[in-house]
Amino acid sequence: MAKIAVYPGSFDPITKGHLDIIKRGSKLFDKLIVAVLNNSQKKCMFTFEERVEMLREITAEMENVEIDAFSGLLIDYCKKKRVNAIVRGLRAISDFEYELQMAQMNRQLNSETETIFLTTSTKYSFLSSTLVKEVAGLNGDISEFVPSIVLRELNKKLKGDE
């Protein structure tokens, strides 16, 4: 049986921290599904379709990485896709508290799916999508924090080219 994991998130925008977790997670599983949350209640800078497309472009060379989307409960998505594990990135202790609660709830809802925590690489431990958007919005240089595709699309958004 193939070991399949899902790395869920809103990815608004995708950072090099996300990409680091995708690369490292893809080495641990036969297949890693990067699942973009489609939540109409959440105000995102990038549309759902834009986030999916950027991830497809960024991960095109990664043979065992698949980009998909979901809405609703993650655990229901895991059952549907026959996922063995949920991959989550941890930056700090504050992340751990929230992620532990989510992992325990998911385990209660489906004991067949484990949550695997990957600590972020030190150079990305402070990085978040929110912080990237704030710095970019104030004309700060975010080129070392996001893939070039994201930088290009973020600059278009901020200049109103769309």
UniProtKB/TrEMBL annotation:
Occurrences of domain Cytidyltransferase-like (ranges): 6-134
Site, as annotated: Transition state stabilizer: 18
Cofactor: Mg(2+)
GO MF annotations in UniProt: ATP binding; pantetheine-phosphate adenylyltransferase activity
Superkingdom per UniProt: Bacteria
Location in the cell: Cytoplasm
Pathway: Cofactor biosynthesis; coenzyme A biosynthesis; CoA from (R)-pantothenate: step 4/5
CDD domains per record: PPAT (cd02163)
Name used for this protein in its record: Phosphopantetheine adenylyltransferase
Encoding gene, per UniProt annotation: coaD
